[in-house]
């Protein structure tokens, strides 16, 4: 199990940032989602390759303030 | 009739000559007062008191309106005013989004002071002509136009019987009439309303700018609050300003280099990153149509649901590929490289008085597609463009119109109203023919369109009184508060946004706070106190735009790449600093977050007291329809049953197993209503208000807003 934005989310082997965003339905522009794993910022270019470990605390902060 | 013949029919009612002035650090230091009832035209000085307490823009508008009306004044009394304010930054050309006008009036929907911001060239040209604001009072006997010649120093009121009323025609006619040449058209901006503004309470104002590449007059809207209805009630057909000689330094700024540097930074960001971010330059605000659907935030069927399988038919890509002309310089004021004022050219209308005409449609904005489209169950891009065009030219607010048609459709489908009441219109969700006919009826002032055009609150009252509708059911599903229709976001799953709407001074409009992602998705503001802090900071920050003459979009619809490394990425700190630099560059006054918030708090609290003075502004008035808090019907609950059942278990501690939907809905309702009330407590506390929503004397004193007339209003409630 991992935390995503403070909520439990099931972990699986080979879970990358890109896969997590897909599973969560986070379809917003990836350049406007700030991803932190255990408080460390992950660059957008590494979303495909960065593996999330079981127990990680992930934040996926959408930077958008509406109309 | 050509424009020459139209002009020959004008009758001069009043003329005023004035000395051309200069602008000093963003201020002309005078405003223009016009009474169309007795044809008075005069200047008023802008005092240091006004600048200190109200800054400019909507601050000036609220101050003038306060002094013009009494607690008994109604929106259609001659005393009511329409004030167009600029703000000290308005008119600079170096920083994107710096051409906004702020319009203030008593709203026909709420009978409360209302502010609406709008692009187009009018505000900057008004300032360059010598005035920080235009204050219009009185009611004319016959249709008039007001002409401000900012180069010759002449203001005229003229009877104008022959021109069209509809915005797209009148904008073209007056531009043609007063331009000295084709080249000169860009020096003219006109305010118009339209024919439906006369018959409804949801009238908007169109502010024009001339598009030299398309060779058409473009329309931007002060959409919300029904100010176009006030305009036509005063029998004003149009207000025109002409100013030739726009340059980048006309604000006579204190230090133009500060402005230039901030502008260069932002232009560069836009050029490098917009195509990877929000695509504003391709499709403007409509870029979020499909995003809102994917996050279950797009209002569908009168805010029952947040998504629909057919949304792909009205996705931003559809408008980009088929309708909206690409590669144009679509800024609504000089220097705005974000260029979000998109348009569909040569669009052939299928219905109404202009059927067969090929027109330029300004839009679609996100709100138009969401409100006129998805919320009414209509997923047809050509309908959206057609309805968008007609709302604009008829002078009615696309947001209120979308929400009120969605409400009427909901009532029709529930059997609360029927064909007999609608005059034969089958107002089912998705019926685009019925929806566009309703809009045409608003223009003609006839049929059910005239009834619907009075807005959701008045429809609700009518359906209860005349047709025996259940008041509780209608209270739950009528998406209005304070008399204003909700704008087009589904807020059920974001408590902070429920407050963003419900605790907004003017009524449920999203321009004070849009917190859905911060709250619902990011979970960045989990506690009541966190949400209250956000519902303090963001409304103050966004109020500030309205004091200065700024557009919100360049603040956070483009983001610096290193924004993620800042401590508060949602605030876009680099852009906030840009604004402080630009403010200092224009006025010479240094600003930081605390002093910016202070400027806004003064006006925000003044507006709250003004609302109180007009008979609203207490806790009871901040209550919201239940559909904005949670699932109001079995259909809504069951459509997202897994989500709601989970919330009952995890948040409420209630086991949904074996319970009926009605039982679960009752528990959910109690929980959500309680959450909203707790949020209201926290926000009032953070804002320095009593638990009845009244600014305290201590707060007013701290802000320097303990003016005798303000204290007199407040002390009755303390």
Q: What portion of residues of chain B belong to β-strands?
A: 5-15%
CATH H-level superfamily title of chain A: Beta-grasp domain
Proportion in β-strands of chain A: 25-35%
- Determine the mean pLDDT of chain A: 95
CATH superfamily heading of the largest domain in chain B: Aldehyde ferredoxin oxidoreductase, N-terminal domain
Oligomer: heterodimer
What does the main sheet of chain B amount to? 7 strands, mixed
Low-confidence parts of chain A lasting 5 or more residues at pLDDT below 50? none
Secondary-structure map:
The complex is a heterodimer of chains A (67) and B (718).
Chain A: E1 2-4, E2 7-9, H1 17-24, E3 33-37, E4 40-42, E5 57-62
Parallel strand pairs in A: 1-5
Antiparallel strand pairs in A: 1-2, 3-4, 3-5
Chain B: H1 3-8, E1 11-17, E2 30-35, E3 40-45, H2 48-54, H3 58-68, E4 82-85, E5 101-106, E6 113-118, H4 122-128, E7 133-137, E8 144-149, E9 154-159, H5 167-178, E10 188-192, E11 205-211, E12 216-222, H6 227-233, E13 236-242, H7 256-273, H8 280-283, H9 289-294, H10 316-322, E14 343-348, E15 358-362, H11 366-373, H12 381-394, H13 398-413, H14 419-422, H15 432-444, H16 447-452, H17 456-467, H18 471-477, E16 480-481, E17 484-485, H19 495-502, H20 516-521, H21 528-548, H22 553-556, H23 573-587, H24 593-613, H25 634-639, H26 641-652, H27 661-687, H28 697-703, H29 708-715
Parallel strand pairs in B: 2-7, 8-13
Antiparallel strand pairs in B: 1-9, 2-3, 4-5, 4-7, 5-6, 8-9, 10-11, 10-13, 11-12, 14-15, 16-17
Helix pairs in contact in B: 2-3, 3-24, 7-23, 11-12, 11-13, 12-15, 19-21, 19-27, 21-24, 21-27, 26-27
What are its keywords?
heterodimer; A: 67 residues; alpha+beta; Ubiquitin-like (UB roll); 1 helix; B: 718 residues; Aldehyde Ferredoxin Oxidoreductase,  A, domain 1; Aldehyde Ferredoxin Oxidoreductase Protein, subunit A, domain 3; 7-stranded mixed β-sheet; 29 helices
């Amino acid at each position: 199990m991992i935390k995503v934005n403070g909520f439990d989310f099931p972990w699986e082997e080979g879970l990358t940032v890109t896969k997590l965003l897909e599973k969560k339905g986070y379809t917003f522009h990836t350049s406007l989602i700030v991803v932190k794993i255990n408080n460390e910022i992950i660059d957008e270019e590494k979303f495909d390759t960065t593996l999330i470990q079981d127990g990680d605390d992930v934040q996926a902060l959408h930077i958008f303030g509406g109309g | 009739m050509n424009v020459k013949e139209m002009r020959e029919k004008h009758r001069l009612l009043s003329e005023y000559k004035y000395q051309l002035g200069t602008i000093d650090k963003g201020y002309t230091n005078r405003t223009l007062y016009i009474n169309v009832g007795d044809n008075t035209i005069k200047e008023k000085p802008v005092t240091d008191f006004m600048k200190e307490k109200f800054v400019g823009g909507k601050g000036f508008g609220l101050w003038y309106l306060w002094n013009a009306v009494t607690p008994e004044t109604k929106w259609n009394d001659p005393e009511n005013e329409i004030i167009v304010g600029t703000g000290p930054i308005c008119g600079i050309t170096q920083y994107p989004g710096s051409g906004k006008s702020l319009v203030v009036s008593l709203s026909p929907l709420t009978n409360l002071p209302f502010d609406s911001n709008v692009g187009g060239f009018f505000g900057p040209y008004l300032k360059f002509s010598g005035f920080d604001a235009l204050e219009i009072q009185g009611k004319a006997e016959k249709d008039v136009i007001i002409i401000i010649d900012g180069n010759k120093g002449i203001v005229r009121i003229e009877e104008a019987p022959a021109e069209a009323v509809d915005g797209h025609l009148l904008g073209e006619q007056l531009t043609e009439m007063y331009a000295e040449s084709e080249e000169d058209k860009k020096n003219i901006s006109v305010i118009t309303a339209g024919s439906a503004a006369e018959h409804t309470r949801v009238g908007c104002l169109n502010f024009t700018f001339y598009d030299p590449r398309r060779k058409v007059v473009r329309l931007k809207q002060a959409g919300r609050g029904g100010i176009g209805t006030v305009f036509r009630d005063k029998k004003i057909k149009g207000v025109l300003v002409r100013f030739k000689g726009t340059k980048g330094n006309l604000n006579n700024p204190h230090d133009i280099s500060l402005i230039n540097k901030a502008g260069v930074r932002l232009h560069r960001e836009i050029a490098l990153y917009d195509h990877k971010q929000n695509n504003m330059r391709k499709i403007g605000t409509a870029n979020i149509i499909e995003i809102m659907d994917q996050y279950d935030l797009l209002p569908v069927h009168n805010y029952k649901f947040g998504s629909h399988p057919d949304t792909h038919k009205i996705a931003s890509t559809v408008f980009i590929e088929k309708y909206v002309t690409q590669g144009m310089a679509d800024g609504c004021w000089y220097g705005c490289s974000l260029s979000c004022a998109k348009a569909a050219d040569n669009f052939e209308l299928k219905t109404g008085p202009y059927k067969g005409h090929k027109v330029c449609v300004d839009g679609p904005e996100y709100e138009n597609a969401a409100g006129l489209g998805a919320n009414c169950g209509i997923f047809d891009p050509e309908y959206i463009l057609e309805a968008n065009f007609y709302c604009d030219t008829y002078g009615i607010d696309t947001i209120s119109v979308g929400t009120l048609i969605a409400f009427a459709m909901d009532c029709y489908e529930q059997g609360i109203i029927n064909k007999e009441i609608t005059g034969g219109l089958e107002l089912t969700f998705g019926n685009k023919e019925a929806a566009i006919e309703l809009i045409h009826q608003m223009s003609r002032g006839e049929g059910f369109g005239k009834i619907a055009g009075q807005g959701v609150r008045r429809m609700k009252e009518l359906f209860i009184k005349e047709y025996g509708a259940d008041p509780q059911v209608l209270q739950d599903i009528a998406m209005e508060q304070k008399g204003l229709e909700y704008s087009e976001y589904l807020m059920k799953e974001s408590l902070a946004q429920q407050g963003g709407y419900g605790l907004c001074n003017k009524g449920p409009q999203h321009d004070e706070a849009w917190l859905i992602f911060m709250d619902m998705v990011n979970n960045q503001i989990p506690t009541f106190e966190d949400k209250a802090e956000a519902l303090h900071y963001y409304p103050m920050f966004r109020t500030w735009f309205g004091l200065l003459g700024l557009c919100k979009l360049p603040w956070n619809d483009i983001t610096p790449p290193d924004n993620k490394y800042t401590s508060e990425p949602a605030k876009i700190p680099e852009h906030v600093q840009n604004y402080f630099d630009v403010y200092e560059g224009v006025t010479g006054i240094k600003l930081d977050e605390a002093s910016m918030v202070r400027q806004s708090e003064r006006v925000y609290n003044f507006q709250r007291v003004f609302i109180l003075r007009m008979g609203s502004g207490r806790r009871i008035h901040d209550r919201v329809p239940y559909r904005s808090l949670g699932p109001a019907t079995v259909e809504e609950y069951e459509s997202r049953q897994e989500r709601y059942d989970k919330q009952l278990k995890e948040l409420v501690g209630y086991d949904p197993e074996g319970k009926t939907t009605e039982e679960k809905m009752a528990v959910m309702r109690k929980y959500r209503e309680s959450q909203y009330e707790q949020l209201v407590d926290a926000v009032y506390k953070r804002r320095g208000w009593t638990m009845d929503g009244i600014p305290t004397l201590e707060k007013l004193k701290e802000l320097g807003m303990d003016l005798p007339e303000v204290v007199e209003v407040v002390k009755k409630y303390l």
